[in-house]
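#struct-help
A.M.: can someone run this one for me? Single chain, 218 residues.
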Amino acid sequence: MVPDSIAAAGTGADAGEAGGGGGHRAAGSRTQAPWTLTFDLKERDTQWTEENQARLVRIVAGYQLNLATEEVERRLDELSVLLPQVAVRCAYIKPSTLAELLRDPAALVARLLQLRQLMPGADISALAAAEPELLLLRDVAAIQADLARLRQLLGDGAEIDGLVQQQPQFLDAQLVSEVLAELRRLVPHGDPVSTLLGDTSWLLRVERGRGRLGDDPD
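D.P.: on it. Structure tokens below:
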């Protein structure tokens, strides 16, 4: 919930506008940018704890959805029933991602059923907490296509569900393809698939390189 000091700050601002001749903004004063709500925090509220970070994420997500705090909390309760680990990691989720998840929590039910059918050996809640954008905000058909391509790249002997559980980035088949190509370049006489399966951190290394250079370094 939002601290009393935040609520008081918002109330005081509305009152000040009404008393200071700012009547032309009275109708729009209810919706404020989230950062304007932090100017009158007490010292105990400004300590950057995980709880405060999660609260800020919820505030911004609610602002993006134009929802009251109470409605955000209600939808977050629904989300926590479906994906408890996602709700617990609220502090580490992008506000825009949380906003999309809270837009219609009930719609996630069908998606979760589909994902569990696609990856019966994986903990979907844990995967969603680790990589919510990769698992929850993509089209299910795209995920299914990536899984099919992944089986082609790694072979029938690869335990796909276990690999995805260990490194959710395996759901990005294009990234896996780039890693295998890089391993072929670095170890021309080696087996790139065996190398990757023996050290899945290669995914993270290539992903970081992609982030530094962009998808098209030229």
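A.M.: thanks! The first helix runs from residue 4 to 19.
D.P.: also worth noting: Residues 139-218 form one domain.
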